[in-house]
Amino acid sequence: MATKTLPVKTIKQQNLGISTILAFALIPLSGFATDIYIPSLPNMAVSLGVDDVKVQLTLSLFLISYGISQLFIGSVLDSFGRYRICLVSLFVFALSSIVIATTHNIYVIYAMRIIHGLTVGAIVVSKRAFFVDIYKGEKLKHYLSLFTIIWSAGPIIAPFIGGHFQDHFGWESNFYFLAAFALIIAALEIFFSGESLQYAIDFRIRSIVKIYVSMIRTASFSLGILMLGFAYCMVMMYNMTGPFIVEHHFNLSPVVAGYTSLFLGLAWMVGGFTGKATINKPFVGKMVMNLRLQLLAAIAMLFVLMAVDNLYVLIFFAFLIHIGAGYTYNNYFTYCLGKFPANAGIAGGLTGGVTYVIVSFLSYGIIYLFPAKDGVNLSYSYLLLIILSILVMYFVVRLNRKDKEQSFSKQQTV
């Protein structure tokens, strides 16, 4: 595929460190866009005069549009560059956040949340590709393994901030905060950042489709994306149901709901750090062991909550399950994103896009099966996702065994 240089502002060498920090600062934006108003969901339903499911749909619409955005935005970024698209997306994201904060029409909010998803997709994929553009070898591997750890700052910090915003200023303040955050980062990008892509590929649909097909047909890559989807869906299940369980079932405040989400965000971070620490361990063995521990935790959670209906018990077992989810995500995200360095934008977009499409439809479907009633229903949700992960892992193990046999046969032939 033909390449060309981009006649745009490039990153100055003295600003590379600041540009890297700004890129990391935007990695958690998808988490902020979902998690900051999670403690406000029950109050939003009352304020807007709609039922719980309609408010939960604002999360699903974001996830769907965020996923779809990533599916196609990678090829656009590889052809037209990262910098300008990211900058425009930050300004549009800020404007749509202000619209949400100033309206009480649920359908306008739906439209703005779709715009949120599209723009955040462009922002996050551009920053993932930034690292592949700039860094190579072990340093790149190091930064990629940090992604899920940095990303987990969103689920940790956002619900904590959102719970207090809700308590003091109402749900609208969450979206004013998102607007301010985006505008500040955009201003810093203008002064300190620039284009990271050195050579752009020609935007030819047929050639781009071939790249997509080649990636999807790589079985290990596709199975990895499924594992990513199931892992993040465990987190999203709590995000969509936890506030209703805490505030309606246990009759506690939005601040408490924010603290529980913060605590489970820490679990995701612990899983990410553990994944980074064991990055050189045999891949299949550690993933199988992780799923076994998750399965035991989910079964124990179900039976204990049937006997003791307690928030502390629920959060304890959810914490263990979320550690496992963070561990899975860290390992598979590093693997999938580093598999196709020549097409970093497309690989990052495809990985994130399919993952979030899986999460959006699967999470909403599971909520339909197991509504946000209590911890027992949440246990069933976790258990279903872990069983699906085990089924996918079965094929991963078979594929790994087949690759080893083929490698051994080649050695014997030589």
Keywords:
Growth Hormone, Chain: A, globular, two-stranded antiparallel sheet, 414 residues
Rg for CA atoms: 21 Å
What class, by secondary structure content? mainly alpha
Helix-strand string: EHHHHHHHHHEHHHHHHH
Overall pLDDT score: 85
Termini Cα gap: 35 Å
The CATH architecture category equals Up-down Bundle
β-strand amount: under 5%
CATH 4th-level superfamily: MFS general substrate transporter like domains
Count of separate DSSP helical elements:
16
Name the assembly state: single chain
Question: Biggest β-sheet, characterized?
Answer: 2 strands, antiparallel
What top-tier CATH class fits best?
Mainly Alpha
In CATH terms, what is the fold-level topology?
Answer: Growth Hormone, Chain: A
Helix content: over 70%
Unreliable residue runs: none
Gross geometry: globular
Number of domains: 1
DSSP strand count:
2
Strand order of the largest sheet: 1-2
Membrane topology: Multi-pass membrane protein
GO cellular component, one term: plasma membrane
GO molecular function: sodium:proton antiporter activity
Organism: Olivibacter domesticus
